[in-house]
Specification:
By secondary structure, this protein is mainly alpha-helical. It contains 14 helices and two strands; from the N terminus they run ααααααααβααβαααα. The protein has a two-stranded antiparallel sheet.
């Protein structure tokens, strides 16, 4: 490793430590209370992702959807209550989330090893990282010590999770509301380099964009034609899907940005990244340099994201199961 790269790695690591300490988290939080916590999480995550690679984008998306609503407190994992309170799980943006079984398996194993110690919020943060590393994506340090929240509302998820139909102004506002920048927006959007998009989300973009039976003019005509062969005009189809990155759909690389520059971003929110000079410049730079800084940038942005609104100390609780609040 060159001296320049060593300095870069050290600088990033130091930044993580400072950021973590500022939020009451530490990289060795479970060193004495549950020293095998990270190893157990990695082992189980690797098992699931090894059998079903699509768990990787699923867990990453779940982590984002959790943090963007009430902060990274595992509120997205809470099940509806007997009193029929609809939780974040019930919201439309979370209707296609996957990976809950992975988190539950990890939690079960950790409760056997270290009962009442490791929070679901920390498990989700670690599992998202380990899942991406398992598919040869970038590694980032995960500060630990989050506590679990006790409130989860479907209405808040619907109001706060960025929509695939959003324009750039709305996206920027969504991210700024939780302390993330335009650069964080374009970098974290790069996660669309893996995973799928469901056809029902792009139906109007393909077949009735302005209410006149037209297609979104921001879509490259050849791509729109191809999408229509994969996503026929069928009402109520919730099963059909396409890969968000058609070039290298299973590799965590910069090819998503290539898709966007070619006007083949799957969602309106992807295309919107070309409407701002800062995000457009970042995209074009990644394409030109073949993603030279993307892994480092992603590690930095997702670390910032993982610190949004964390609960620490006497705040929150460590749930016994991730789907329910502890009642004492």
């Amino acid at each position: 490793m060159t001296t320049h790269k060593l300095v870069s790695v050290f600088t990033i690591f130091a930044m993580f430590v400072v950021m973590a300490n500022a939020n009451g988290l530490t990289l060795d939080y479970y060193k004495y209370s549950c020293p095998d916590a990270e190893a157990i999480t990695k082992r189980i995550t690797d098992q699931y992702v090894g059998h079903v690679p699509n768990f990787a984008p699923g867990l990453l998306r779940m982590h984002f959807h959790d943090c963007i609503v009430r902060g990274c407190d595992a509120s997205v994992l809470l099940d509806p209550t007997p009193s029929n309170n609809k939780t974040e799980k019930d919201s439309i943006p979370n209707s296609t989330l996957r990976g809950f079984e992975v988190i539950n398996a990890i939690k079960g194993a950790l409760e056997e090893k270290c009962p009442g110690i490791v929070s679901c919020a920390d498990i989700l943060s670690l599992a998202a990282r380990d899942a991406i590393v398992k598919i040869n994506g970038p590694y980032w340090h995960v500060p630990l010590g989050r506590k679990d929240g006790i409130i989860s509302l479907a209405s808040e998820a619907l109001a706060n999770i960025p929509s695939p139909f959003s324009n750039f102004t709305t996206l920027k506002q969504n991210f700024a509301a939780v302390g993330l920048s335009s650069k964080d927006l374009v970098v974290l959007s790069g996660a669309h380099t893996i995973g799928i998009g469901h056809c029902f989300i792009i139906q109007s973009r393909l077949y009735n964009f302005t209410g006149k039976g037209d297609t979104d003019p921001k879509l490259a005509p050849s791509y729109a034609k191809w999408l229509k062969t994969r996503c026929p005009k069928v009402v109520g189809d919730v099963k059909s899907f396409v890969y968000m990155d058609r070039i290298t759909p299973k590799a965590f690389d910069e090819k998503y940005y290539t898709m966007v520059t070619q006007h083949r971003g799957l969602f309106e929110s992807d295309a919107a990244l070309l409407d701002d000079s800062e995000t457009k410049n970042y995209i074009e730079t990644q394409v030109y340099t073949q993603g030279e800084t993307f892994p480092k940038d992603f590690a930095e942005s997702i670390t910032r994201m993982s610190l949004i609104g964390v609960l620490t100390g006497s705040q929150g609780q460590v749930r016994k199961t991730c789907g329910a609040v502890n009642y004492y």
